[in-house]
Amino acid sequence: MIQKGLLVVLSGPSGAGKGTVCKAMLPAMPEMGYSISCTTRQPRQGEVEGVNYFFKTREQFEQMIRNDELLEWAEVYGNYYGTPLRYVEEQLSEGRNVLLEIDIQGALQVKKKYPNGVFIFLIPPSLEELKKRILGRGSETEESFKLRFGSAAEEMNYINEYDYVVVNDKVEQAVDRIRSIIYAELCSVKRNREYYNKLIQEGTKHAVSFD
Amino acid sequence: MIQKGLLVVLSGPSGAGKGTVCKAMLPAMPEMGYSISCTTRQPRQGEVEGVNYFFKTREQFEQMIRNDELLEWAEVYGNYYGTPLRYVEEQLSEGRNVLLEIDIQGALQVKKKYPNGVFIFLIPPSLEELKKRILGRGSETEESFKLRFGSAAEEMNYINEYDYVVVNDKVEQAVDRIRSIIYAELCSVKRNREYYNKLIQEGTKHAVSFD
């Protein structure tokens, strides 16, 4: 029913739990394409090359920028993050839906290129919870924590740039909401107008030639 | 997060399976309000007063019309169908979501009064399947079948008046799609703008007063 894949962008403030939710999406919707970002930041404990990220040097990343190989990229807290363009384009042209998990700067860039994408803003249930989560990572200095928490609170301002907001209270519930949003968008009349107009023509033909 | 309930209208051509799907929604989403229509048509086998419909005489129904007690009403194949207004208004004002299962004429009336409602068009997987379903009811004469089938095919034209289309191939899948649409709408930024703007103000306050 869908002519082309749906581009779903999962974004939101730092510490909302984008990575955790995205990882939990995979078993819930294995038929989707999951874009893997490139980054120059150091791997956190347990992160695997080609699964969580493609880890790059600054030189490699800057080469990718020059070669136009990135759908979006940003420098966040001194590290580069970016989305390889080719995977996304291939999946979408084959009619497969693709999920991107990216920060807000990146999402705004993607929105310019894919205004028909589905933009989901993941938020923590409260600022208190956000504080706990950022500290829980154990990878923050006092300085970097203050920077990250302050930004996260300010980043809430970007809600209005998005189509949907999902509160990440429980991961499985957030996953269910995102899955719901994807199914709903796939059922939306505005996304399928061409297909339905064909169906209407057939319907009318049948109705006329009924006897 | 929602200030007021969501009005969900499940509609579509005759024979799409609206009644069956609506009945299956109840255990899937017991927290919703399910509006029960009034009708002057004869009960089909197994239909129960106050569960499937409130069965009325033509005199009773016409009295309800005169008293403005109906949100919408229509005469379809010689029978009146209508939605009692009070139940819907009460549920919505209490912040409860309400599902209406109504024909296309009725849905278009509701859309004028509740343009913010969610309008779902349920369709059979094919015209062949539609034919089988209408005949399967066993309540049709040849004449009424031709009338119903011809109308159903023409009714497909109304797709563009709706927000979503759900193909009723398997009932449980149709229910899952409708549930997804409801959850997605509840997460939509446009429906929660007021709430989020409040959240943003708080967020900014916290960010400023962080140290």
TrEMBL record, chains A, B:
Belongs to the guanylate kinase family. Its EC number is 2.7.4.8. ATP binds at G12, P13, S14, G15, A16, G17, K18, G19. Essential for recycling GMP and indirectly, cGMP. SMART domains: GuKc. It is found in: Cytoplasm. PANTHER family: GUANYLATE KINASE (PTHR23117:SF13), GUANYLATE KINASE-RELATED (PTHR23117). It catalyses: GMP + ATP = GDP + ADP. PROSITE patterns: GUANYLATE_KINASE_1, GUANYLATE_KINASE_2. Keywords: ATP-binding, Cytoplasm, Kinase, Nucleotide-binding, Transferase. This is Guanylate kinase. It is an enzyme of class 2 (transferase). Residues 5-183 form the Guanylate kinase-like domain. Its main location: cytoplasm. InterPro entries: GK/Ca_channel_bsu, Guanylate_kin-like_dom, Guanylate_kinase, Guanylate_kinase_CS, P-loop_NTPase. GO terms for molecular function: GMP kinase activity. The gene is gmk.
